Amino acid sequence: PSVRRNIERNLKMIVMFRDPAERCRSEYNYCRKTYFRKPALSRLDASIIHRMAGTLDFDSYLDFLLGQAYVYGNLASRYIGWDGSEALSDLCARDVFHSGVLERSQEFVHGLAAKVGMPFDFPHENKTGAGGVTRPTRSQRRRIEKLYPLDYTLYEWRIAQLDGDVEEQKASTPRSRVGVTPYPVFPSISV
Fold first, then answer.
1. pLDDT tens track for 138-150
2. Which residues, 6+ apart, have CB-to-CB distance to 52 below 8 Å?
3. 44, 20, 158: which is closest to 101 by C-alpha?
4. The dihedral of CA 160, 166, 169, 175: what is its sign?
5. C-alpha 42, offset from chain centre
6. Can you say whether residue 4 is alpha, beta or left, with left for phi > 0 and alpha for psi between -120 and 50 degrees?
């Protein structure tokens, strides 16, 4: 569900994006870890995503997510209200006060501090990368690309913007990915 569509007044978001494959693997690791921290009896009321991560290997977890792509696909894009039909620059000008990417969090912090006119530190460093986290394989990455095609476009557009190499991204001109359906249609989901 989109933040913009579910709040009845104009707002501008502050958002941080992450490489969708890294985000997916991190989510799996986090949900699996928290699932196993619970006592066995308490696991009965675990959320479906925690239960799947706790009981499936990563490949099977991806199969589960792909089977429910209308719920779990394109999370970042849906969150900000982008369905691929509008130019990202237009959407961001209208709805986003500041955005960045996790992998370049210091740029995010410095840019936001400049906009608000006061310094601050990044409030949370992502620590899931510590401790030998396994990166997705090439095959897993291809399946993740099928699950998050709009999120990849959004993430790559933001990276290009940070690098000063901006190109308009719309659903009508998707980045070519071999064997990937660029923009699946998701039914409306209300929360």
1. 999 999 999 999 9
2. 31, 61, 64
3. 158
4. negative
5. 28
6. alpha
Residues 184/153, Cβ–Cβ less than 8 Å:
no
Q: What is the DSSP letter of 9?
A: S
Looking at residue 38, its amino acid is K
**CA pair distance 148, 183, nearest whole angstrom:** 9
**Alpha carbon distance 175, 153 (integer Å):** 7
Question: Could you read off the pLDDT of 51-96 as tens digits, one per residue?
Answer: 999 999 999 999 999 999 999 999 999 999 999 999 999 999 999 9
The CB-side HSE value for 98 (13 A sphere, CA atoms) comes to 12
158 φ, ψ (degrees, to nearest 5) = -65, -40
Q: What residues form DSSP beta bridges with 98? A: 14
Going by the DSSP 8-state scheme, the letter that residue 41 receives in this structure is: G
State the Cα–Cα distance between residues 49 and 85, nearest whole angstrom: 29
| End-to-end Cα distance, the chain | 7
Q: Which two tokens stand for residue 28?
A: 């799996």
3-state secondary structure of 34: helix
Q: Token pair for residue 125?
A: 């460093």
Tokens standing for residue 117: 């006119």
